Amino acid sequence: MQTLEKLSLPIMGCGTWAWGNQLLWGYNESMDDQLQAVFNLCVSNGVTLFDTGDSYGTGRLNGRSELLLGRFDREYVGTGKENIYIATKLAAYPWRWTRQSMVQACKASAQRLGRNVDLVQMHWSTANYAPWQEAGLLDGLADLYEQGLVKGVGLSNYGPKRLKHVHKKFAERGVPIATLQVQYSLLSTYPVTQLKLKDVCDELGIQMIAYSPLALGLLTGKFSEKGPFPKGIRGLLFRQLLPGMRSLLACLREVAQSRNKSMSQVAINWCICKGTIPIPGAKTLEQSRDNIGALGWYLNASEIAELDQAAANADKKMVQNIFQTK
């Protein structure tokens, strides 16, 4: 049986959704050397948690994110190597419904990584549309822990009701839930303010991981209502949301200027101050350096209160993940 002490996560991680995703993030294989440099910079600066998923990578590049992470991990030589944690999420595909299918999926991820997965997470709950499917998947998740194939298990996109249900189910088997990952940012406060998820996590001893802490780039301050916008789906979303974000972005800019920090750094630091582990993505060294600049300092109580108020008053909010459960 594994112990949770083995899963000592840093206060910030790096999300790798973009590493292999052509559709949303414009990935191509010529970026790989740059991504290795991002990985190296993160690890050498104490950002040693890398979050991926077995569904990351579009089309023929499915699984690309895991393959790249495995290669980068093997080729990295430097400080912090022993602290690298790779977390993956196993998709609840319609054809994946037995406990054995989850064990096989995790073994396939480990093969792509060339090493064991440290933290394995259920990518989403099927409770909203196929509740019958979930029991087998969750049993398989717990099996992975019991068989010593992973150091910890976590959930993603679960609300408090489902979280408590799974926590009880796992506790009966002596399997602790290490983490819960949800979409959380100044533009997506719903999981914490409405669902009170952080309170439930604290009560159950679960660490909360915040994905999309920069709301797909909307909180970086790099985009204006006049454009230019990113290509594709992100561009459509930006056109829709930016006009309703004026007061939030103004507040973020004001705090950033007074702190001599970037808007991204303030947005990420806000997530840290809320007791979560943000996992902003990075495709370039510039983005990675900017993210790392969110570490080593903390917003004060009045700055947090100002940002909280501005977030509450934003006319438009980030679209919630359709799989997020209650």
Produce the secondary structure layout.
Blueprint: E1 13-15, H1 22-25, H2 32-44, E2 49-51, H3 64-75, E3 85-90, H4 99-113, E4 119-122, H5 131-146, E5 152-156, H6 160-171, E6 177-183, H7 190-193, H8 197-204, E7 207-211, H9 232-241, H10 246-259, H11 263-273, E8 277-278, H12 285-292, H13 301-313
Helix pairs in contact: 2-3, 2-12, 4-5, 6-8, 10-11, 10-13
Helical segment count = 13
Distance between the termini: 31 Å
- The total beta strand count reads 8
**Dominant shape:** globular
Give an overview in words.
Residues 1-5 have low confidence and may be disordered. The radius of gyration is 19 Å and the shape is globular. It has 13 helices and eight strands. Helices cover 43% and strands 11% of the residues. It has one domain (4-313): TIM Barrel (Alpha-Beta Barrel), CATH 3.20.20.100. An eight-stranded parallel beta sheet has the order 1-2-3-4-5-6-7-8. Helix 2 runs parallel beside helix 12 (285-292) and helix 10 (246-259) crosses helix 11. The chain has 326 residues and is an alpha/beta fold. GO terms for molecular function: oxidoreductase activity. This is Aldo/keto reductase. Keywords: Oxidoreductase. Residues 12-310 form the NADP-dependent oxidoreductase domain. InterPro entries: Aldo-Keto_reductase, NAD(P)_OxRdtase_dom_sf, NADP_OxRdtase_dom.
